[in-house]
């Protein structure tokens, strides 16, 4: 576990401190394997490949990569991911396109990293093993995929879950890494796209709106954004007491890691400090089963819910910095959301699209059809098909017509 979090937990709770010590003592020493970055990090540009390794994936030549990126405070970090070049040839115009895949929630533990579970490694749960839902339809069209693990997932330190800036950086830089990876046949300046759903929808949205500033050289033809968690202040209320409360726990760890000035762990009581430790050790399904229906007010020293803190500093500044929708995407973007979504409220996607429309962006917003039972989960399948179709049309040169003012 990251040193800053362990120290904060020790100051907050004796139980949590003991648990942290036991966790470290019972774990094997970090192996000098692929996921261990060199120290110090090599000098270079954002997206430069630090190292690569052959991986496995049906229907594609897969290469695991470690590349340079930036955290939320613009500090250089090492991030891992996978570059997938399909065996199917590209039959469209120009060079083979690359789509950055921003993964949905896999968890916080290193063994949940998508670059591990895609290769049949790591032991992640069923949720972290189903990223192929979005990847395969792209490969079947002859489109290459560059998947990021985000900051701290697989690599040392905590995963900065749903933190806008770090997710945007890692998503854009994995495209650069794919373009610079030798031996792939991918063009260094070819057409690219971005896609993601849920956490990945937030990552995709953050990336497409930051691309003009952070990666202006990328030829972004379009982006797909599914069920994006755009406003964390809203989610602090909607997830509290819900069956997906564990995702709120993930977000608190992510915020505490990216913005240590919040000192979130210092607000926690013994139970809350314990949850902080547990959240860093699980994948998606374990988080749902372990933390379902918890109330954040039972985890703080003063009995206030997490949402109550977000109206005061330093949280207001941090939440504003994490807000998606304040920057104009210059690439056509499709936002989709299921009206009955039971994890990320429907209004998140619609408001994001409206925010971008207000900035003059080329945006379409559409409803995702899903059954009332677990609609967030089951809307992912139609989202995956729509993602591939939308991006395929952009790479084919078809015009994207916005529907601003009609939703």
UniProtKB/TrEMBL annotation:
InterPro entries, per database record: AB_hydrolase_fold, Lipase_secreted
Alphabetized Pfam families for the sequence: LIP
UniProt keyword annotation of Oxidoreductase present: no
Protein name, per record: Secretory lipase
One GO process term, biological-process aspect: lipid catabolic process
Keyword terms of this UniProt record: Signal
Molecular function GO terms recorded: triacylglycerol lipase activity
Signal peptide: 1-31
């Amino acid at each position: 576990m990251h040193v800053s979090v362990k120290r904060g937990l020790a100051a907050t709770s004796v139980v949590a401190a003991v648990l942290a010590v036991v966790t470290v003592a019972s774990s094997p020493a970090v192996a000098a394997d692929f996921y261990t970055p060199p120290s110090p990090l090599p000098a270079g540009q954002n997206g430069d490949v630090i190292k690569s390794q052959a991986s496995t994936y049906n229907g594609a030549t897969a290469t695991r990569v470690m590349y340079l990126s930036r955290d939320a405070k613009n500090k250089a970090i090492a991030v891992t991911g996978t570059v997938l070049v399909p065996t199917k040839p590209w039959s469209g115009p120009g060079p083979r396109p690359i789509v950055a895949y921003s993964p949905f929630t896999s968890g916080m533990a290193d063994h949940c990293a998508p670059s591990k579970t895609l290769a049949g490694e790591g032991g992640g749960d069923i949720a972290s093993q189903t990223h192929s839902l979005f990847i395969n339809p792209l490969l079947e069209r002859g489109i290459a995929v560059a998947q990021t693990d985000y900051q701290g997932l697989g690599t040392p330190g905590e995963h900065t879950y749903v933190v806008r800036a770090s997710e945007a950086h890692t998503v854009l830089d994995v495209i650069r890494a794919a373009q610079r990876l030798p031996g792939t046949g991918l063009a260094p300046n070819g057409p690219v796209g971005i896609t993601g759903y849920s956490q990945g929808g937030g990552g995709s949205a953050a990336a497409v709106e930051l691309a003009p500033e952070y990666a202006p050289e990328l030829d972004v033809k379009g982006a797909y954004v599914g069920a994006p968690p755009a406003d964390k202040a809203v989610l602090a209320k909607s997830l509290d007491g819900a069956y997906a409360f564990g995702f709120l726990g993930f977000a608190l760890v992510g915020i505490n890691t990216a913005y240590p000035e919040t000192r979130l762990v210092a607000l926690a009581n013994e139970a809350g400090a314990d949850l902080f430790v547990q959240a860093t050790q699980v994948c998606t399904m374990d988080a749902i089963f372990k933390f379902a229906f918890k109330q954040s007010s039972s985890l703080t020293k003063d009995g206030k819910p997490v949402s109550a803190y977000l109206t005061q500093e330093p949280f207001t500044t941090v939440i504003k910095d994490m807000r998606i929708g304040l920057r104009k995407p210059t690439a056509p973007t499709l936002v989709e959301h299921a009206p009955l979504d039971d994890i990320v409220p429907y209004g998140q996607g619609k408001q994001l699209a409206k925010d971008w429309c207000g900035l003059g962006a080329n945006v379409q917003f559409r409803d995702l059809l899903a059954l009332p039972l677990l609609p967030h989960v089951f809307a992912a399948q139609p989202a995956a098909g729509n993602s591939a179709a939308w991006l395929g049309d952009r790479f084919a040169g078809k015009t994207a017509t916005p529907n601003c003012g009609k939703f």
